[in-house]
Every structure is written in C-alpha cells, then in structure tokens.
Amino acid sequence: MEWVRHLSGALGEPPEVVGGKAHGLVLLHRLGLPVPAGFVVTTEACRVFLRTGRFPGGLAGELASAIEVLGPSTVSVRSGAAVSMPGMMDTILNLRLTPDSLDEALKSVFASWNTPRARTYRTLHGIPHDLGTAVVVQRMVFGDRDDHSGSGVAFSRDPGTGENAPFGEVLFGHQGDDVVSGRTLTLPLHTIANREPAVWQDLLDALSCIEQHYRDACYVEFTFESGVLWLLQVRPGRFTGAAAVRLATDLADAGAITRAEALLRLAPHHLRHVRVPRIEPDADVIARGLGVCPGVAAGRVAVTSDEAVRMAADGPVVLVRPETSPEDIRGLAAATGIVTARGGPASHAAVVARSMGKPAVVGVADLHVGSDSVAIGGRTVGVGAMVTIDGTGGEVVLGTPRVVTGGADGHLRRLLGWADEVSGDGSERGEAERLEAAQVVLRRREGA
Amino acid sequence: MSRDLLVLHALRCVGTTGLTRVASFTGLDESDVESELIDLAVAGLVTHHRGFGGWALTESGRSADAARTKAELESAGTRPALAEAFDAFLVLNPELLDLCTAWQVRSADGVTTVNDHSDTAYDARVLALFTDFHARAVVVIAALAAAVPRFGRYDARLSEALDRAQAGELERLADTIDSFHTIWAELHEDLLATLGIARWSG
Where exactly are the structural domains of chain A? Predict the structure, then answer.
C-alpha cells in the first residue's frame, strides 16, 4: 500500500514516514508487548492533503481495506508527527469505524497541523511547516469499561530524582485523555499494585523490557481494560538535571551502558541545572506537581491573596490556589512561592511566577483548596502551616526539609571522576568544563 | 456601561489594586476613578485596605457587579454573540500562554532554562510571533466589542503594551503588572465574570 501501513513489528519505516507515535508502537510490537491493533496513514498522505485540500488518489481504497482488516470496531484517531508537538493537534476518540466517519476524522486531524497555535509552536521550535503529520488509527481499549479498568502514564524511573523506581499517575475507571488533561484527580502509579496486581506486574515487566531496549529510562501511556494491560505510546524518558546524572551513572553501574556512553549522554546544560537548590531527596514528599520555576521556597500556607499579603508581614508565605486569576498576582507578589492544583508549564500561574522569579509548582492533581485548609496528598494542611516547595522537581513537603545545592552529590562526583579519567585532567575546574573536556576526547576517539 | 459600574467591574477583573490600574483598565482619569471609588465605598460595595494601600470589592460589591453586568448583557440581548466570540478567545488563549512561556524560558538539550535574552535573534522571533498573534487577537476583540462595547478597551491596552515592547520595553510582553500577558489575563477574567462562568469548582 502506498499511503497506509498496518502496525506490526515488520514495519521498518522511519518516523519521517510513519510519525514518532507509530514508530514507538512498532517497537512495542517487536518487544512482544500488548498494543491495540491498528494502522497508520503516512505523513506523505498528509502533505498531499495540505497541498491540494484532497486525499491523494488511492487513499480511500487503502483505507477501506484497512477498515476491513480491523473489522467492526470503535477506534481512536491520533496525530503523530515525526517531531513531537504535544497537545497541538486533534485527537478523536471513540469513533465508530466506517469509511465516512474515518474520512472526516482523518481530514480534521490533517487540518489541525495548520492551526495558528500549531504554526506558532513550530516557528518557536524551528520545526519546518511542510512536514505534515502521520495519523494513527487504533482499536480503542476502554479505561472506563469496568472496576478493573483505568488509564495512566508511567516513567520507568523517577524523572525528578532519577531513582530506579517506576513513577507516574493512574486514574481508575477513566480513559487516557482524562489523565493528560489534568481535569480529574489522579492517583500515584503504585496504587495499581494493590488494586490490580496482575496489571502492575505486567507494567513493571514492560517498563523493564523497554528500558533494556532503549538502554535508557522510558515513558509509556497505558490503559488497562478488565484487568488486561495495553500500551498506547512509548518514548525515551528524556531526563534532565540531577535525574539525568543519576540515571546515566546507575545505567553505567548496571552495565547497561559504558561509562563513555554515560558521559556522552549528558549535556553540559544538565550539570548547570544540577546546581539549582533542591529539597533533599529523603524528604517526606506529600504531593508532587510540575516544577515550572526553579528554586526552593519555604513558607506558611495562605489560600487567598488577602491572606498572603497579611501573613507576609510576619514571615514568608507560600500561596496555594486551585489555579490563578489576576487577583492572585498581588498574593504572589507577597508570597515566596506558589502551588496550584491546575495548570501546566504554559499556564497563567507559571507565566506570572517566572515573571517574578518565584519558585512554582503547578498541576498538583491531588490538591483541594478549602477556606481555611488545603487537602493535599491525602492530608489536611491548615492555613499557617509550614510547607516547602521545589520549583524544579515539583515536590511539596511539610515543614522545612534540608535544602541541598548540587544534590546529585555522590552520583555527580563519581561521574565527574570518570570524566577526569577520560580527559586526563584533574585540575580545579567547573563541573560543566570537566564534562566537556571528557566529551571532546570521547568524540575524537569516536571520529578516529 | 455607567462609570460607577465600570470602576466596580475593574476591581472584579483586576483584583485588589490601586488607582493607577483601575484608571488603565477603565480609561478614566485617576481623580475620576477615586471619586467613583469613594461613592462605591459609601454604598458598601468596595473597601479601601489601608494596610496594603489598595481598593477591593466587598462581598456585596461582588454580587452587585455580577447582577448589574448580567442585567446589562441580557438587556442588550448579545449574550449569544459574546459567547461565540468567547469561543474564539479560548482558541487563542493557549497560544498566548505558549508565547509568554517561550519568552521566559528556552529549551536546550531537553533542559528548560530561563531566557536570559542574550540571543537577540530568538527574542526577535518571539516578538514577531506576538505581533502576528496580536493581529489575530484584535479581530476577536472586535467581535467581543460588537457584543459588549467596553471590550474594545482591551484592543487599546494590548496594542499599547505591544507597541512599548516593540520600542524596546521588552518587559511589557510578560513580565510586568501592565504586560500584554496581564492585560490578556484580565480580559479572560472579564469574559468569565461577564458570562457568569466559574473559573474552577472546588
């Protein structure tokens, strides 16, 4: 077929043709992991559509036969460009598969390549406008089917610290888009262990299998339907800062990668990031969100701007809000840091916090703000109670934990020791310089 | 919208604040704003916080604003038109937040770092995208203003912030109390308040 490919382990084409999402699904097939049946429409078909406003000749016929192979089903229709553009394009779920409905869904996803927001995103990130997106059509699995169903996202290791323990979120009884949207409160990933032990075991096995293949931490999106696990998306973990240092060092220690590979995987940027003050790793984290403005802030909880302004006269305040409105700018100006239940890296709260250089944690899913207390991570924290937040890793901690700078500590020391061995230079220099010197030697060796 | 309601509504959208921001919001002189605020205070609708020197709505001021804004919208009969233009606003909103974020932070080697504005080519690219965005935003604001004329004021305010940024005051994009982003956030709050939509529940 010219425009359509069945998703299977035999599919050998690169992301430029089938998109990053389908490329990951092919990998999952090859590893023998459970993936819902489906097919992908190529980026070239999208390019023709964007150029001419019509499907390329022959696509309709190929779609008809792909529909026949899949049989009567309900499907998801998702964009998947060669380059990741998270949340920028259309996704259609729960589509009853007929030639007409698929036709319409496909056109809508193709067309979403060119929304103004998507164009702005590409201009910002230097992504060419003429790439187009592939479209993945897969049989739906239902996270809301019954009591033994749900959806979630998982990292094979903790992306905040690099610790070798699976990390993520799950929503029982919901479809996957509810997890990503942040509209519904999620539970920590490990709650699956008690509620669905078989799913948990399969998920752990899958994460470890994918890690072995990538020789790197990984990220997956999954759904379990009536106690059966399905994987819907996969990519490498893309850790940064202290987590990247710990990951590379641990992988080298485990023999998964060589020390030279560990050194080459880190960018000097990562080491500069390691130097940002962090809450010490052993602190009792009661909740975690998304760190969107780095730094650590400790202060007493205030739940309104008025309260923050009033309390700030007696010492530092952390403003805790469901999300922010213009009224909160005043409270944030008075506060030393902010926590919100909703929002992502490009939320109003994040933009305002960064404009003031205040540590901020947004998108803390299990946070409810009351009038004189907040419910967070299953605990009740009263107004005036002391909390500490970490705007890098997104941690929220009760009281005042120790704050460390250059937290990756032992791991970083060892890694830089390897770097000095490679470069043969043990002189006093900055950490990024030590890494760079080793990378120069290693790249020269690779080139030779 | 009568002058007293305009001032009352400014506090609803901006939050507790001083005369300067209410004047900027309403387009009135600070002295006129102050005399309106004093009348509103006498009526129990606003209050002056001595401690942090700002004017704030009282609970009854908040309800009065909601009731009068709603009555005005109903009598004009333009709720459907405003709601339709609000949908167009919601399409633009995430893009503006993307742009503000791109202005503040950059991604290099997968690591997000603060934009230190040393790369003038990058800054120029983002500023150009703001300009492109603004051209589309004024179309939506015109639709909002066709339904409720006072929304036209946001065009003037956003245009001024962008002009200043283009003239070199780069902090007017996303980093000040009168930045393009702050004015946009006030517009968002204004739309929610005028249409009676709760920003969050629980």
Answer: 4-139, 150-236, 241-275+407-447, 278-404
Contacts B112 to A, Cβ<8 Å: 240, 345
CATH for A4-139 (3.30.1490.20, 1.20.1540.10, 3.40.50.150, 3.30.70.980): 3.30.1490.20
Question: Inter-chain contact A124–B16, Cβ cutoff 8 Å?
Answer: no
Architecture of domain A278-404 in this structure: 3-Layer(bba) Sandwich (3.50)
> Tens-digit pLDDT profile for chain A (448 aa)?
899 999 999 999 999 999 999 999 999 999 999 999 999 999 999 999 999 999 999 999 999 999 999 999 999 999 999 988 888 899 999 999 999 999 999 999 999 999 999 999 898 888 999 999 999 999 999 999 999 999 999 999 988 778 899 988 899 999 887 776 655 667 889 999 999 999 999 999 999 999 999 999 999 999 999 999 999 999 998 887 778 899 999 999 999 999 999 999 998 877 876 777 888 877 888 888 888 888 999 999 999 988 998 899 899 999 999 988 888 888 898 899 999 998 888 888 888 898 888 999 998 878 899 989 999 878 899 999 999 999 988 999 999 999 887 555 788 899 999 999 999 998 888 888 999 999 999 999 887 6
Cβ-defined contact of B98 to A346 (cutoff 8 Å): yes
Report whether CATH 1.10.10.10 matches the domain B3-73.
yes
Closest-CA residue of B relative to A118 is B95
- What is the pTM assigned to this prediction? 0.81
Q: How far apart are CA A401 and CA B46, in angstroms?
A: 41
Q: List b or e across A370-404, with b for residues whose CB sees 16 or more CB atoms inside 10 angstroms.
A: eeebbebbeeebebeebbbbbbbbbbbbbeebebb
